[in-house]
Specification:
31% of the residues lie in helices and 19% in strands. The protein is an alpha/beta fold. Helix 3 runs parallel beside helix 15 and helix 8 runs antiparallel to helix 11 (257-264). The longest helix is centred in the N-terminal third of the chain and has 19 residues, at 72-90. The chain is globular, with a radius of gyration of 27 Å. The structure holds ligand MGD (2 copies), iron/sulfur cluster (SF4) and molybdenum atom. Molybdenum atom is lined by residues 131, 327-328. The site of one ligand MGD has 36 residues, from helix 18, strand 15 and strand 21.
Length: 885
């Protein structure tokens, strides 16, 4: 019998409800849950493609020790023994956990309990350090607690939405769609986007401020001064509910308008227009994400923003407030359980003896950690210098995502004992594990996550656990029992863990701590199974309450007031001839982090199939780079080679590269190898968006493009990048030496059986050379080579893997790299839901479809998840502008 299960999307912090359907034949399909309050039925391109990421290809399905298959008991015994041994010989701080905002709350709770309560060290940190920690630090300075006051509805109720350091259209797409829909129905609503790049999000902006890197503190300080001098301050609110306004104002006044303009890179008119809009609009929401958090001034940026909301009393009311958008599906849940090294459980402070004592008594813990542990960057330093001797990494891929990634990799190589719990066998991190533990993935695991608006939703399993994979919490609890802590880790289900977590949140709370879900403290399995999404807080003995924090003007500092924090604009980096560019890093629409899941989907991989760097046309000219050339980017930490995308959306002097590619998908594209381990002094969050680099054209002797039914392997090339395609794989290639036998090269790279002979094609004039291998009617692999970046139509070439080639002329057409008139090249994929390419869209525009809706009617593009609507609009504008010239 087919069954439908309500669960939650495992990607971004919007936390959309998903209905997963498993058919009788085991086929899975997903759709948005119309009743979930985060998405009301919508899903973005990544959410819509979830079913394509569930196959077991590449999965880690049984424990391994030193590369050999092992039993669970043996592996768990070894982990417990090595951790105990290190603790006995070198103390509790010689071991560490590095965990993730992609763990479920229940997993996270057990990890934190084991480390902070029973091992007695606070050396547990998480990839949320790279993600949310500046927001956490900023909230705690301002509010006395890590509280996100608002809710999604506020973006729809606001008259002005300021998005700073957020590429909402690509990174929180469903929230972006809610915003876009609200703006469409109320066109008087204004959107301001503050981002050095002109992102797809800037598409709906009434004002795009292309701010200089890290200009945000100066900008919001300037705004605070403007609000003060223009009389927009809510004096009653400031005096009744806050402290420190005068100091914040004094610090903010350090720059005059000229100074502000220099620090922000914005014209005075732009500054005045933005300030005036903010001043005159009461209902303002300021959303921020990694352009704010991932900075050496990240915490100050957060407080500069909050200062402006406190000064105007625009917080905790409908349509108003500062709003930190969390990245990962359970970044918020991780904060609730205290997964950061400087927090305790249930939003309690590790530095407060009262809180330590409460947690100790609640857990019956022998040794609650008495001081903060090492934050991620410092933790890997301690691994490198031998202070940490046993490390357990869970649900994160630090060899790709940590700054100074090559040094992180060297640290893991040198570490005496590394345990990795993951769903995949081969990642850049698993290759350094002494013990590999197979975890359950989405669809198999069971627990809760909390989204950006504090809404707790269930992730429910709808697939059986494959082979020996097991829940992360179970692995932790089993190790804890083997370390001698059986009583405290006797949990039999995620429901029991959730109940304990809820009970701790309400323990001796009485409204003193913001995080309280005590109402669920005695939840049983049945109630947990049908738990509906709810927002916290939900204290015991109160009716369920949805809503905002701070509506009553009460905060969590001891005096009940919020604090203004005086912040000063950081000094801009001086021009450096050796490292003339600022590299900004981030995300693309259809990939998730290190691609371990989205890399499995051909549709998602078709949007952007290769690691790239965006560069302004004037910079490209200066360094002699043309569109589609390869570029070598270097920093004092490392080097990458990526494809050039020349675009005026990028500001001169700035480069942008995505963080996703890694050694499994490209030869040398781990962007974090370039990022130095510079961190914010308060939060310890790395400055991943402002990296001093140099860039130069990477001249290859021969360029290649290939399609292959088999996964390309051991590619002998100076540059390669592979991506999943519908009926196989595609590869971008470059070679610097002479290659005398391309046929053999192909046989080995694409695993071509001996009996299959190639058809060759050489164009002597252009120097281009092509080889195609057919097995009967089926194209097995094709390689296109050229002295210049290969111009063959990519999506056409990829589609040839899926179609039969009955007659010889069709096979020669493939070798010649020419789409026939009957099969025009659709071009690079824009709409991944319906696989519609850019050439099809431009053809429709030429045919008179001049709006996103018209293109949608003709091609269906943009009519499902809507994530590509801004790109379609951009293509229409570009075509119409070109036609008008
Ligand atoms: N498609 C996709 N979506 C995702 C993810 C993914 O991997 N793929 N990951 C999820 C996660 S974990 C996270 S944390 C979020 C991140 O979501 P976002 O923070 O929205 O994404 P980023 O691309 O990291 O960065 C946002 C923007 O900050 C800008 N920026 C850089 N420097 C500055 C600056 O100094 N000031 C300002 N104002 N802006 C600046 C960048 O140009 C970039 O456009 O996305 C989540 N959603
Ligand atoms: N330069 C640069 N670097 C960045 C960023 C940036 O913007 N620029 N952003 C940073 C941010 S915000 C983030 S959040 C990080 C993300 O970086 P990572 O956390 O390293 O990214 P993921 O690829 O999501 O890693 C998750 C890992 O867990 C595995 N996994 C998936 N599900 C499960 C599960 O249920 N259990 C277990 N045990 N494993 C599982 C996956 O296969 C994968 O190996 O990157 C950070 N690094
Ligand atoms: S916006 Fe997309 S990625 Fe984020 S939770 Fe919703 S469906 Fe998933
Ligand atoms: Mo993140």
């Amino acid at each position: 019998m087919a069954c439908e299960v309500k669960t939650t999307c495992p990607y971004c912090g919007v936390g959309c409800g998903v209905i997963a359907r498993v058919d009788d034949d085991g086929a899975v399909s997903v759709k948005g849950d119309p009743e979930h309050p985060a998405n009301f039925g919508r899903l973005c391109s990544k959410g819509s493609a979830l079913a394509e990421t569930l196959d077991l290809d590449g999965r880690l399905l049984h424990p391994e020790i030193g590369g050999r298959r092992a039993g669970w008991n043996e592996a768990l015994e070894l982990v417990a023994e090595r951790f105990l041994q290190s603790i006995a010989e070198h103390g509790p701080d010689s071991v560490a956990f590095y965990v993730s905002g992609q763990l479920l709350t229940e997993d996270y709770y057990v990890a934190n309990k084991l480390m902070k309560g029973f091992i007695g060290s606070a050396n547990i940190d998480t990839n949320s350090r790279l993600c949310m920690s500046s927001s956490v630090a900023g909230h705690r300075r301002a509010f006395g607690s890590d509280t996100v006051p608002g809710m999604y509805e506020d973006l729809e109720l606001a008259d002005l939405v300021v998005l700073t350091g957020s590429n909402l259209a690509w990174c929180h797409p469903v929230l972006y769609q809610r915003l876009a829909a609200a703006k469409a129905s109320r066109p008087e609503m204004k959107v301001v986007v503050i981002d050095p790049r002109q992102t797809m999000t800037a598409d709906i902006a009434d004002m795009h401020l292309a701010i200089a890197p890290d200009g945000d503190v100066a900008l919001f300080n300037g705004l605070l001064v403007h609000l003060t001098t223009s009389g927009a301050i809510d004096q009653n609110y400031v005096s009744a509910h806050t402290t420190g306004f005068a100091e914040a104002f004094a610090a903010a006044s350090a720059l005059n308008l000229d100074g502000l303009s220099a620090a922000t890179g914005l014209a005075q008119k732009q500054l005045r227009d933005f300030f005036r809009l903010f001043e005159t609009t009461e209902k303002v929401v300021t959303c921020y994400s990694q352009g704010v958090n991932q900075s050496s001034a990240g915490t100050d940026k957060v407080n500069a923003i909050i200062n402006c909301h406190l000064a105007t009393g625009r917080i905790g009311r409908p349509g108003m407030g500062p709003f930190s958008l969390t990245g990962q599906p359970n970044a918020m849940g991780g904060r609730e359980v205290g997964g950061l090294a400087n927090m305790l459980a249930a939003h309690m402070d590790i530095e407060k003896s009262l809180h330590r004592d409460q947690v100790r008594r609640f857990w019956g813990a022998p040794a609650v950690a008495s001081k903060p542990g090492l934050k991620a960057v410092d933790m890997f330093r301690a691994v490198a210098d031998g202070r940490i001797k046993a490390l357990w990494i869970m649900a994160t891929n630090p060899v790709v995502s940590m700054p100074d990634a090559d040094v992180v990799e060297a640290a893991l190589k040198a570490c005496p004992f590394v345990v990795v719990s993951d769903i995949l066998r081969d990642t850049d991190t698993t290759r350094h594990a002494h013990v590999l533990l197979p975890s359950l993935g989405w669809g198999e695991k069971d627990g809760t996550v909390t989204n950006s608006e504090r809404r707790i939703s269930r992730q429910r399993a709808f697939l059986d656990a494959p082979e020996e994979a097991s829940a992360d919490w179970w692995q932790l609890a089993e190790v804890a029992r083997r370390m001698g802590f059986s009583e405290a880790f006797g949990h039999a289900s995620s429901a029991e863990i959730f109940a304990e977590h809820a009970a701790l949140s309400g323990f001796e709370n009485d409204g003193r701590r913001d995080f309280d879900i005590g109402a669920h403290a005695s939840i049983d399995r049945a109630a947990y199974d049908c738990l509906e999404p709810f927002q916290w807080p939900q204290p015991k003995e109160t009716a369920p309450q949805e809503g905002r924090f701070f509506a009553d003007g009460r905060f969590y500092h001891p005096d009940g007031r919020a604090c203004f924090v005086p912040v000063q604009a950081p000094k801009a980096r001086l021009a450096d001839d050796a490292l003339p560019f600022t590299l900004n890093t981030g995300r693309v629409r259809d990939h998730w982090h290190t691609m371990t899941r989205t890399g499995k989907s051909a549709r998602l991989s078709a949007h952007i199939a290769e690691p790239f760097v965006e560069i302004h046309p004037s910079d490209a000219q200066t360094i002699g780079v043309a569109d589609a050339d390869l570029v070598r980017i270097e920093s004092p930490c490392g080097t990458v080679i990526v494809r050039a995308l020349v675009t005026a959306r990028q500001a001169p002097g700035n480069l942008f590269a995505a963080m996703h590619w890694n050694d499994q998908f490209a030869s040398k594209a781990r962007i974090d190898a370039l990022v130095p381990p510079i961190t914010d002094p308060f939060s310890g969050q790395p400055a991943s968006k402002n990296v001093a680099v140099k860039a130069a054209r990477f001249a290859a002797r021969t360029y290649g493009f290939a399609v292959s039914t088999a996964k390309p392997r051991k590619l002998q090339a100076v540059y390669w990048a592979i991506a999943k395609a519908e009926a196989g794989w595609r590869a971008e290639l470059a070679f610097d030496g002479a290659q005398d036998n391309w046929i053999d090269w192909c046989r080995q790279a694409f695993s071509i059986p001996g009996g299959i002979e190639p058809i060759g094609y050489t164009d002597r004039q252009s120097g281009e050379f092509r080889l195609a291998f057919f097995e009967g009617e089926r194209l097995f692999a094709a390689l296109f080579l050229s002295p210049r970046p290969v111009a063959v139509a990519r999506s056409w070439a990829v589609s040839q893997l899926a179609v039969p080639h009955a007659d010889l002329s069709k096979r020669f057409a493939v070798a010649a790299g020419r789409p026939g008139a009957d099969k025009p090249d659709p071009g690079a994929t824009v709409c991944s839901c319906f696989s519609v390419g850019v050439n099809q869209i431009t053809a429709a525009i030429r045919d008179g479809c001049h709006s996103v809706e018209a293109v949608g009617q003709r091609l269906s593009a943009g009519t499902n998840c809507g994530s590509c609507r801004s790109e379609i609009r951009g293509i229409i504008n570009g075509c119409l502008a070109a036609a008008a010239e």
